[in-house]
Design goal:
Blueprint: H1 8-17, E1 20-24, H2 31-38, E2 42-47, E3 58-60, E4 76-80, H3 87-97, E5 100-104, E6 114-118, E7 121-126
Parallel strand pairs: 1-2, 1-4, 2-3, 4-5
Antiparallel strand pairs: 5-7, 6-7
């Protein structure tokens, strides 16, 4: 289970700050999404491949050419261990949507976001929703 990999603090961070979240690239790891749904967060997930999980809405979308109507009224996009080459597309999407972006990398990739430590986890954060400027200090 992903919970063994310190997702509890990430779930707490997201659920305590946002009303609507979209996981970009859910793949084979729906643990964060399920934990957020358990906390009553309005959530859906996207992936370029057709994934189906009970009780979770997963929409096929390509973050390099996103269907913007999917992302209407989102407060935060987040992604777990995305390929680093997709992160710039997520940053552009978040900026266009005026939504924050959280990326939890696979390892120590430097992603040009603000490295944020919360509880027992770290992630990169871009604040477009609250500041309109991207990375904040």
């Amino acid at each position: 289970m992903e919970a063994c990999r310190r997702i509890d603090s990430l779930v707490e961070y997201i659920s305590g700050r946002y009303a609507k979240a979209i996981e970009v690239g859910i793949g084979h790891f729906p643990d964060v999404a399920y934990s957020l749904i358990d906390r009553q967060l309005n959530l859906l997930a996207t992936d370029i491949l057709p994934f189906a999980y009970a009780g979770l809405t997963v929409v096929m979308d390509d973050v390099t050419a996103p269907a913007f109507d999917i992302y209407k009224n989102v407060n935060v996009l987040y992604s777990m261990r995305p390929p680093p080459e997709l992160v710039p597309y997520m940053v552009r999407l978040a900026e266009k949507l005026s939504a924050d972006l959280i990326v939890k990398p696979l390892s120590a990739e430097y992603l040009h976001g603000r490295l944020t430590k919360y509880g027992n986890t770290t992630f990169y954060l871009w604040n477009y929703r609250t500041t309109g400027k991207g990375v904040t200090t």
